[in-house]
Specification:
The protein is an alpha/beta fold. It is built from 11 helices and 10 strands. 39% of the residues lie in helices and 21% in strands.
Length: 269
């Protein structure tokens, strides 16, 4: 298991505005959602984890070693990141060459890279588009190409930035399957989300960012039960939790199944 530890992290793009203000976090295997309003510092934070930026103060340790001692290329073997906008990530003129780029770049042979790439394109239901230009496909399909390109690198840590954006129900179900599979493989999954329903249903741990600080951090069930604290970050509870609250139910409900079970038990009582 790859470990990430964040100690007293500060970061600013300009001296006048501090984006991150003393972040202390440890990632040790739980699937983790990072939520918060735009401008809370989420995307900046994961770019620091990936080594695309460096802290102004504090440190990020990867397996005990400061990420400042790695180049982004070295970290790419262990930390994969799917960008929010696939257009910022895709640059090849065929789907297969795009997905193969990452594995080839970290030392896989041509045959290995192609085999892994086709496997991952099958996983996202795009194996029929190997020679297609990615920009001839839809935005949601390009997002899946970007995901396949990171999965093909088989990194121990996978970071998703807003993966559900632009995805329909089937796309979200596919993402759910991928995240569960990565978890079952012992990989660390970290995901930035605005979709509170998806975060609550899928992720074991949720971290709430607000104005460059960690407002809450804990099991998703506990975090999403705290309606008033979420409100401080201008976030709403998942819809299921809101429905349970309207029905006057005590406790924390994150999925349809949990709510339906309690309602059935009440009717049968």
């Amino acid at each position: 298991m790859s470990l990430l530890e964040v100690n007293h992290l500060h970061f600013s793009y300009t001296p006048e505005v501090e984006v991150l203000k003393g972040i202390d976090l440890r990632f040790n295997g739980e699937t983790t959602a990072i939520v918060g309003q735009n401008g809370a510092g989420k995307s900046t934070f994961v770019k620091l984890l990936k080594g695309l930026l460096h802290p102004n103060e504090g440190e990020i340790l990867f397996n005990g070693k400061n990420t400042k001692d790695y180049t982004p290329a070295q970290l790419a073997k262990d930390i994969g990141m799917v960008f929010q906008n696939p257009n910022d990530q895709i640059f090849k003129n065929t789907v297969i060459s795009e997905v193969m780029f990452g594995p080839l770049n970290i030392g896989n042979s041509e045959d290995e890279a192609r085999e892994k790439s086709i496997k991952m394109l099958k996983k996202v239901n795009l194996e029929g588009y190997l020679e297609t230009n990615p920009y001839d496909l839809s935005l949601s399909e390009r997002k899946m190409i970007a995901i396949a390109s990171i999965l093909a690198m088989e990194t121990g840590i996978v970071i998703f930035d807003e993966p559900t954006m632009g995805q329909d129900f089937a796309g979200k179900q596919k993402l759910k399957e991928i995240i569960y599979e990565l978890r079952d493989q012992g990989k660390q999954v970290i995901c930035i989300l605005h979709d509170m329903d998806f975060a609550a249903e899928i992720f074991e741990r949720t971290i709430v960012f607000n104005q460059g600080k960690v407002l809450m951090d804990g099991p998703s069930r506990e975090v999403f039960a705290q309606k008033e604290t979420l409100g401080q970050a201008y976030l709403e509870q998942p819809h299921i939790a809101q429905i349970a609250d309207q029905l006057g139910l005590e406790g924390s409900y994150l999925t349809d199944e949990q709510l339906i079970k309690v309602l059935k038990e009440r009717l049968e009582a």
